[in-house]
Amino acid sequence: MLGIKTVIGDYLKAHSNMYPYRRYMCKNNCIFIHIPKAAGTSVLHALTGTTKHVQRDHCSAFNFRSADKKRFENSFKFAFVRHPIDRLQSVHRYLLSGGNGTNNKRLSSIISTDYSQFEDFVLDYLDPMRLHTEVLFKPQISFLCNEHYEVMVDFVGKYERIDEDFTFVNTKLNLNTTLPKSNVSKVTSVVELESKVQEKIYELYSKDFELFGY
Fold first, then answer.
1. Which helix or strand (DSSP H or E) is residue 214 part of?
2. What are the tens digits of pLDDT across the range 101-131?
3. What's the pTM value of the predicted model, to 2 decimals?
4. Are 56 and 94 in contact (CB under 8 A)?
5. What's the rounded Cα separation, in Å, for the pair 51 and 199?
6. Distances (CA, A) of 127 to 64, 131, 143, 202
7. Cα angle at 176 between 12 and 34, to 5 degrees?
8. What is the rounded CA–CA span in Å between residue 181 and residue 179?
9. Which pLDDT belongs to residue 4?
10. Average pLDDT, the chain
């Protein structure tokens, strides 16, 4: 009897929707690292096959590895990154529009009231502490790298060539799906910013620029 219980328990564990692993990940044998404001919602809709609301987990590769090392090693792991300046501008616009209206409601209110100008937001609000306590501000390396700045996933696509790079993911996972454009914002030219604003962003996100070729 104990042997049967063990087998059933192992089966349920292997097929459960164990956080942070989601059902679509288990189905497609993949791990999608959803970095905020880098076309992640579009990718989620393509992977789940629905344009309805889906749970957006901003977990790191380290979180997935810690939860289930074997599953992590056997899955195709991928993510999409975005130019740090463009991504930060998108985060700022998102907060000005109200954010998600729930857990970042207070942050959205602060930004809208006191830092509605992007330059003020960067120069007067952002600092290293806030970068690591607010998920929207976190450097992209914090989602994808270990303590040695080594990328822990198999493929890193880019927001700037999302259609081409998602085609690779589509093929790799043997899917037959298209990438919907969900929550996609227009790329803003970085030359519009004052040099001191750009310099601070380069300083705060130096490893993102270095490791992802921006």
1. none
2. 788 899 999 999 999 999 999 999 999 999 9
3. 0.85
4. no
5. 38
6. 27, 6, 19, 12
7. 60
8. 7
9. 52
10. 88
User: Which among 136, 34, 30, 44 has a CA at the least distance from the CA of 77?
Assistant: 30
Does the bond joining 20 to the residue before it have cis omega, within 30 degrees of 0?
yes
Residue 33's DSSP bridge partners are 79
DSSP conformation letters of 140-198: THHHHB-TTS-B-SSEEEEGGGHHHHHHHHHHHTT--------S------GGGS-HHHH
Across 19-23, 97-101, 197-201, which has the greatest mean pLDDT?
197-201
Give the 3-state secondary structure of residue 78. strand
**Backbone phi, psi, residue 56, to 5°:** -105, 105
Q: Which of 25, 20, 37, 147 is nearest to 81 (CA)?
A: 37
DSSP state of 16: S
- Which single residue is written with the structure tokens 């081409």? 164
Question: Identity (one letter) of the amino acid at 89?
Answer: Q
Task: Write out the DSSP string of 27-39.
Answer: HHTEEEE--TTSS
d(CA 49, CA 178): 9
pLDDT per residue as tens digits for the range 17-55 = 588 999 999 999 999 999 999 999 999 999 988 777 666
